[in-house]
Amino acid sequence: MFKKILIANRGEISCRVIRACRELGVKTVAVHSEADKECMHVKLADQSVCVGPALASESYLNIPSIIAAAEITGADAIHPGYGFLAENMYFAEVCEACGIHFIGPKKESIEKMGDKIAAIELMKKAGVPVVPGSGGPVEADDPKVAALAKKIGFPVIIKATAGGGGKGMRIVVSEETLDNAIIMAQTEAKAAFGNPDVYMEKYIEEPHHIEFQIMGDKFGHYAYLPERDCSIQRRHQKLVEESPSPLISEALRKKMGKAAKNAAAAVDYVTVGTVEFLVDKHNDFYFMEMNTRIQVEHPVTEMITGIDLVKEQIKLAAGEKLEFSSDKIKILGHAIECRINAEDPDKDFIPSPGTIGKLFLPGGMGVRTDTHVYSGYTIPPYYDSLIAKIIVLGEDRDEAIARMARALKEVEIENIKNTSPLHSKIMANEKFRKGSVATDFLPKYIFGR
Ligand code: ADP
Predict the structure, then answer these.
(1) Taking a C-beta distance cutoff of 8 angstroms, is the pair 417, 400 a contact?
(2) Residue 164's pLDDT is what?
(3) Rg of the chain's alpha carbons, rounded to an integer?
(4) What is the topology classification, in CATH, of domain 132-202?
(5) Distance CA 205, CA 280 (A)
(6) What are phi and psi of 366, to 5 degrees?
(7) pTM of the complete model beyond 0.85
């Protein structure tokens, strides 16, 4: 086991990793920017190092600074959390070259899954179903691209090959708007990822986003865990996640889980990762992408399985053998997570940074709150707006919804506009209460557009 882990991240995920380390008897080092001196992860860790100014590119993304912090403090491993450097294969390579363990998969696995087009080709070879598409980058004003779009059939979706966070995506309903959409998606992709390449695939109508947590050890053993349904999204970004999915039968779970395991095996995956699929109205499923890191929504899986995924991730990175097999993992109930973002849902989700006055976050039977904020804390404007995750476990879906609804009523975050009132509306919505909803749920049934 590692002796000291540096967490190259901030906020709630940093706190989450520190907690896992502490239970494993591993010392922790927090890094922070000049704007994050007062953040909870700095207070929770055994040691902390300032790695640069507020701008993420100069601190949390500053590889030389982070490596120096690990060397100065004698950390033998780095946990990247999610976002920032978590899926940067160059960072994994530098860690390795400096003799520091990267808590994640091998750099080759990150590389193979990082380019979405290459990943889709690889999945086809591994027998995992994929969405029909261009199989390569597309350009505007190309008659071949227009012909292919017609062949696939409108609507199609233009996506960034380096994509993430729903950026660089455009749905195209007819040929007239195709070229414009390609150019807009390229511009957005260049700004967000420094890479303008986009590809085209069939737009699956009223899809459900279903993903599988997988685990793998260095001895070639893999397991999949029960699915998460992440179909409640705004602008292709997840807001609510639940497990198991009301849509998925035991037979489909087994079939998709096996496909997820095959996807992981195709890239010799070690530690924990997530294979994302879209499921259409015929219950056909298609590989979308693999995230080679821990995800924001991992707690719903932890709640329904009782498995601490971050501890397992650390153990697997340290070379331990996988202790689980998919068929022995029991579903203990129904879990839901609501992401509480410092954003104003009534004003198109504009960020709402500032100083928190009174703060009350819910607890009680079956309620877990993962957060880094406290009363008097100032939310900086520089980073992700996620300030808390509320996760509930109920005996069944009805109990989980009732529990989440009551937990949300308890939330008080004075001075900060946040998404909790929106979540209350979702929990009260009849369509949501009846079962799995498609990714168009929020715009159609909550915002009425
Ligand atoms: P990102 O990496 O930016 O998160 P993903 O490929 O994971 O992008 O897609 C994010 C979301 O975009 C999906 O959950 C889904 O709602 C929507 N989406 C992506 N591809 C398609 C598609 N082919 N058809 C319909 N919706 C899609």
Answers:
(1) no
(2) 80
(3) 21
(4) Dna Ligase; domain 1 (3.30.1490)
(5) 7
(6) 70, 15
(7) yes
